[in-house]
Amino acid sequence: MGNDPCAGPDxxxxxxxxxxxxxxxxxxxxxxxxxxxxxxxxxxxxxxxSPQHIKNTGNTEDYFVEFVKKNPFGTITDDSVQTFxxxxxxxxxxxxxxELGDAGARTPVQARFSYVWxxxxxxxKISHHHSSVRPxxxxxxxxxxx
Length: 146
Known about the structure:
Blueprint: H1 9-27, H2 31-35, E1 44-46, H3 57-67, E2 73-84, E3 89-100, E4 107-120, E5 123-133
Parallel strand pairs: 1-5
Antiparallel strand pairs: 2-3, 3-4, 4-5
């Protein structure tokens, strides 16, 4: 996980735990389980493979009906965290790689992400989620030493 000077060990553990809850919910292949992690009100969800700006959990569940069929599994490759509201909300952003497809024929997809998690009714919920495929050529090639 990334390192943020404002984030102590407890914050890093929290964002790891919440990302794992989200990633694990994808593994259930139950769209309702994934959608349950999103806020009921004030949601802003801009998913990778949808042209829609999703603003409610019903549409969130509809989106995940198809997405979970791709057998997605995400791994964070770079991230950072900023906390807000005295620790009751935080922005988790960075890069992740998703493996999609059936075993033996998985395709990696590199993407950017941002989540805003906030406490809602005593539980951590996603109030904002944006994910986009990393543009081609975005990775700078390191110079090869002579």
